[in-house]
Amino acid sequence: MSSAMAKVKTVQFRAQVPQDIDFLIRAIAPFKDSGKDWSLSDIVVEALLEWLQKPENRELVESHNILEGLERRGLTTNIYSNLPQ
């Protein structure tokens, strides 16, 4: 298996959401026309990626050298590679 095909280890992430958000997410997921079935995990990951990419959160990651901490743990991310500097 090539490194490009290696599966990223996932961790469980638990959150509580208001009932209206739960209802909307579960109602919308089946209608997403992207060629795949969307799980709640897929939706949460997409939302968290967008949150991490917000300029104010990216600035915190950079100013506190959080990416270096990620690398010290043997982890990498490419979530900032396609964003304007």
UniProtKB/TrEMBL annotation:
Taxonomically, the superkingdom here is: Bacteria
Q: What is this protein called?
A: Uncharacterized protein
The organism encoding this protein is Pegethrix bostrychoides GSE-TBD4-15B
Organism lineage string: Bacteria, Bacillati, Cyanobacteriota, Cyanophyceae, Oculatellales
